[in-house]
């Protein structure tokens, strides 16, 4: 179908040979016309160049929903906050989990994975506007499966590439949030056809306007392992490792803990916290996609100091706001759905009350090295059709 919006023409002067070559190449590559071929060449060449962003800002700005000593919850479209309320370069950390680009949408209206970048562009512009030059943007984003077959959408990688190539953000470091309690889904590919494994990590893109945002990994140390503690106690003989790394005497200095990896192990298992009880008591909708408090806690501690300003523009049940408040940061949370905020405010009723029991950050999870279970390969074979058809019975699974 010809595009009806294409009403303009340009004529270009060519030599006979140039014209012939263009026609032949367009035909060989199966373009319908030279115009289609030239448009394709242009789009390929300039696809990464920042095109002017077209969007309309929401007419209504955000409204203050709740205030605490350190922060404010706003209700409304966060574009209103980013362009009408927030000062330019006023935010030290944007810590957020936007609606994911899901194929099977949740109750709060996820974005279509195919159109995700288009939807995100105005927010990216707003994030750049409000972030301080040495601030950080941290985006927790889950992957998605393509509809109907066992292949993954690339939308969260497209988002990352767009933020870096179009908006000039730097990828400081990707993190992965491993949720040890994640169920094996999608059942069709994981449990029934057995051709994929459990999808148990979310990507967490840590970005900033400069390669040198404020950060200090000493603020987020992990406990030493037993062997390291032993080594600190009994001393270490400096030597070269098989990898060629020279381990010097400095290795045996006690730094108060080890530098954590970029894999964050946090079980998302909250089932009886005060937020949940409050929602149940007051018959309020419980947010279906909350992240655990340890996720924002890690980045808030790592990338900001007390007194700094933290923003969550897709706030949901305001976990980020609660953590920021408890850690003495100023903060703002913006959420479109007032229903979620009615429950979220309960997080601030008992301000300062620490969860009872053990420090959840001291939890340890076990992860096996691959292939830790011995399998007889003469009996268990690869599935020849790659899961194209369903097994007749589950007997072999
Ligand atoms: C993945 S959830 C965030 C959950 C949150 N991290 C928590 O732990 O509760 C994304 C949220 O973004 C909200 N949202 C979507 N578009 C928005 C917009 N334009 N402005 C503000 N909030 C928006 C949705 O209503 C949803 O609650």
Query: Roughly what is the average pLDDT, rounded to an integer?
Result: 88
User: Strand-residue fraction?
Assistant: 15-25%
Task: Name the structural class.
Answer: alpha/beta
Number of DSSP helical runs: 11
CATH superfamily of the largest domain: Vaccinia Virus protein VP39
CATH architecture descriptor of the largest domain? 3-Layer(aba) Sandwich
Unreliable spans are none
Largest sheet: 9 strands, mixed
Bound ligands, named by name, code or SMILES: S-adenosylmethionine
Helix-residue proportion: 25-40%
Strand line-up across the major sheet = 1-2-11-10-3-4-6-5-9
Radius of gyration: 26 Å
Q: Briefly, what CATH class of the largest domain?
A: Alpha Beta
What would the principal axes of the Cα set say about the shape? globular
CATH topology of the largest domain: Rossmann fold
Overall tally of domains: 2
